[in-house]
Amino acid sequence: MAQNDPIKKTTLERAKFFQSVQVWPLTEDMNYSGWLNNFKTDNDKMLACLILDFFTYYSAKIINNMFVASIGRAGSKLLKLFPDWKHSDFYDRCIYSYIPGEVPNISDSGFNFARKLKDVGEIPEEQLVEFRDIPETLERFKKPVPVILVDDFIGSGEQCSKAWNKNKFKYNNKTLKEISEKDKHVFVYAPLIVNHIGFKRIQKDCPSLILTPTHILGPEYNLFDPTCFCWKNQPDLYAAGIELILRKSGEIGIPSTAGRDPQDEKGFWEQGLALRFEHGAPDAIPSFFYWCHENWTPLFKKSYTR
Predict the structure, then answer these.
(1) What residue spans of 122-175 are helical by DSSP H?
(2) 194 pLDDT more than 60
(3) Residues 273, 175: one domain?
């Protein structure tokens, strides 16, 4: 038996256990064994097992729990800004919307997450507003309104910065920032998870936008950072792991663009995250997790454009 076959066996057994307790999805959704078979040498298999162990999957149940927590944190902020705030205001006072993608479309994670407000948060449908209709909706009120924007993940923060500071609504030719400043409406952005670079960028570019994520991911979650938990504070392990990811990425044609391409070998903006939500995965993850190639079995399916 090869030296690292026991490591692979243990990893697959752990994956099977995680599936049984619904921490990881069924094999139909994530092909653990197939992905590990991409790696042929003992050393490559060992490193791939470490990466797979580090990979985080957020099931629907976990997502719903985080969703409720992020909205709850928004309420704690609003309590400090509205002296008359009460819990029922979540249902009849707050307006809910989302931050759209660079090219807004119905598949935006924020758009889809807004639907969770009805199913998970039991928010009345009349409180949910399309992003484009925010200024017209707010004009109906004679006093400041709390607006909660929902999403699953913030990566670089670029999308939010543009939506807040630059993109003007057709209705009144104003940005979110201008609407907030002029009419004193309070905007809270309540994503599930935000990467630290996005968190810092939004704090810098959008200081009046309140952020209430459930989790903030530091550099220790980036596979390409020496402090990453995956490499267990071992410089040799880190160097070997990075060499493996970049070598395999090059072999199957994954672009190397210093993070400029959404399918970059290190993920968009070189974020290097190893995570997936039940409903999809962000561009912040390295493409070798989902790349489709005749000589490569992806860990899971993710829609992308070559």
Answers:
(1) 134-138, 158-165
(2) yes
(3) no
